[in-house]
Every structure is written in C-alpha cells, then in structure tokens.
C-alpha cells in the first residue's frame, strides 16, 4: 500500500485544530439558546422539556468552554472560514433536533431545526400540538439564524483578529461598519435586538398575548415565519396585527447595517 507523505497527513489535522476554538464558541452560543426555552418550560411546568433543555445546555456549555480554550498557531484562511460557517449551520441543525425527541422522531426534529436555523419556515409539525417551550424554541432558532450564528458569536465571544474577520466575511460579506468586525457585529446585534424589542411591544399593544407576541416577533424579524398557530397571523383576524407584522417583515428583510447608518443623530452636526 502506498503511504501518504507525512506533510500531506498533517495539513488536514492542522486545519482541524484551527477550527476547534471557534466550534467551542459556537457551542457556547447554543448553550445560551437553551436558556429562554428552559424558562418557558419551567413556567409552563413542562418538566420533560425542561430537563432536555437544561441537559443540552449544560453539556454544550461544558464542551464549549473546553474547546474554546484551544488557541491555534495562526488564523483561519478564507476557505476554512467558509467551511466552518457551513459546519456551524449543520451543527446547530443536528443539536437543535434533540429537544424535539420528546414529541417526534429525530428526522422530523432535524427538519424543524434546520428549517428554523436557516429561516426557511417549512414545518412538519402542528404548533398547536407542541409544548409551549418547543414552539418558543423553534422561533428562537429562526431568530438566531436571522442574525447569523457567526455574527452572534463574534458579538459576544470570539476575540478580534484575522479569524474573526474571515468568519464575518464568510457569513456577512463585506459590510463592515467600524473597521473592527467585533464592533460591527455588536452594532448589527444592537439593531436586531432593538427591532425585536420594539416589535414585541407593538404586537402586544395590538392585542397579542405576551407569549404569542414574543414567539411571533422572533420569527418575523428573522423572516422565518414560524407561528403559534397553523393558520399563522390569519388566526387573529386583526388588521392592526397584520399591518404590524407586515411592517416588521419589511424591517427584517432590510439590511441591518443600513438601520445603524440611519440611526438618529448620525447626520447631525
């Protein structure tokens, strides 16, 4: 059997080692995403779902904390960043399938999670038959996917540098607002959070119950479309709610850096 040169076998391992740290930060983001549905599960006394969310969150936090301590000898290259970005969505879709095991098969759960994190909006489950914490989790996954997994990681966790720049460029293109990708990611995140908070209060003021307003604004601003009801917004038969949802759909479809550039005071003397 012909043996590969030692250098040829070492290069893939070197590339793999450079991805360990960023994957650790992605796991920490996933662990954080378990907190809101855990709170809903606790409030609604959905003990099985609560155990799943807490178990997944704890395991992801532990593994993420260990992996994020790996410091590669050099930054990711552009093609490595692209591959890691694709891997991030695969990782989140696989992990996101696990909470659904309490109500359906892994395949159906994987479909829901992949649809959520990619903001596709397709579903094989009736939301009326799901625990409230899972309905909220689906929309939260769309919200995370709408912001961008890498952008959230950059804003909260990843240290600045060439690796951060490569990952940001791989997911978000060249829209750099500050010359610093971490600061740019934080500004994009602030816009996203502000639109989400404003939308929640407007939905609630238009007549949605608080829980449903929270679930719907998460899926509206991300342009994903998951709902509490199978007939979605039509269920409310409210022109005010329909108008509010249409407005925030347009906001979600607009470039978030543009909102930052148009913020109040931007053009003042």
What does the secondary structure layout of this molecule look like, with pairings?
Layout lengths: L5 H28 L1 H9 L3 H21 L10 H20 L8 H12 L14 H16 L1 H8 L5 H11 L8 H25 L4 H12 L17 H15 L2 H6 L8
* Number of E-state strands: 0
Query: Roughly how many Å is the radius of gyration?
Result: 20 Å
Helix content: 55-70%
Q: What are the low-pLDDT stretches, counting only 5+ consecutive residues below 50?
A: 4-11
Q: Kindly state the mean pLDDT as a whole number?
A: 81
Shape: globular
The count of helical stretches stands at 12
Order of helices and strands: HHHHHHHHHHHH
How many structural domains are formed by the residues? 1
Query: Structural class of the helix and strand makeup?
Result: mainly alpha
Distance separating the two termini: 74 Å
Let me know the largest β-sheet: none
Strand content: under 5%
General description of the model:
It is globular, with a radius of gyration of 20 Å. It has one domain. Helix 9 (181-205) crosses helix 10 (210-221). 68% of the residues lie in helices and 0% in strands. The protein is mostly helical. The protein has helices at 6-33, 35-43, 47-67, 78-97, 106-117, 132-147, 149-156, 162-172, 181-205, 210-221, 239-253, 256-261.
């Amino acid at each position: 059997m012909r043996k590969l040169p030692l250098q040829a076998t070492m290069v893939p391992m070197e590339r793999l080692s450079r991805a360990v740290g960023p994957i650790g930060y992605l796991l920490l983001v996933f662990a954080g995403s378990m907190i809101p549905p855990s709170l809903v599960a606790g409030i609604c006394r959905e003990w099985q779902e609560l155990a799943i969310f807490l178990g997944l969150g704890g395991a992801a936090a532990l593994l993420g904390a260990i992996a994020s301590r790996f410091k590669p000898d050099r930054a990711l290259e552009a093609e490595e960043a692209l591959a890691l970005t694709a891997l991030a969505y695969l990782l989140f879709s696989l992990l996101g399938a696990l909470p659904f095991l309490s109500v359906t098969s892994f395949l159906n759960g994987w479909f829901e999670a992949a649809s959520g994190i990619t903001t596709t909006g397709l579903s094989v489950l009736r939301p009326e038959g799901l625990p409230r914490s899972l309905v909220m989790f689906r929309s939260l996954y769309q919200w995370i996917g709408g912001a961008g997994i890498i952008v959230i990681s950059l804003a909260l966790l990843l240290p600045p540098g060439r690796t951060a720049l490569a990952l940001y460029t791989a997911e978000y293109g060249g829209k750099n607002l500050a010359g610093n990708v971490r600061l740019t990611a934080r500004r994009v995140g602030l816009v996203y959070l502000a639109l989400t908070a404003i939308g929640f209060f407007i939905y609630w003021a238009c007549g949605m119950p608080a829980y449903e307003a929270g679930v719907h604004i998460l899926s509206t601003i991300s342009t994903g479309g998951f709902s509490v009801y199978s007939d979605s917004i039509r269920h409310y038969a409210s022109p005010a709610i329909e108008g509010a949802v249409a407005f925030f759909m347009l906001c979600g479809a607009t470039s978030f850096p543009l909102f930052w550039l148009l913020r109040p005071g931007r053009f003042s003397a």
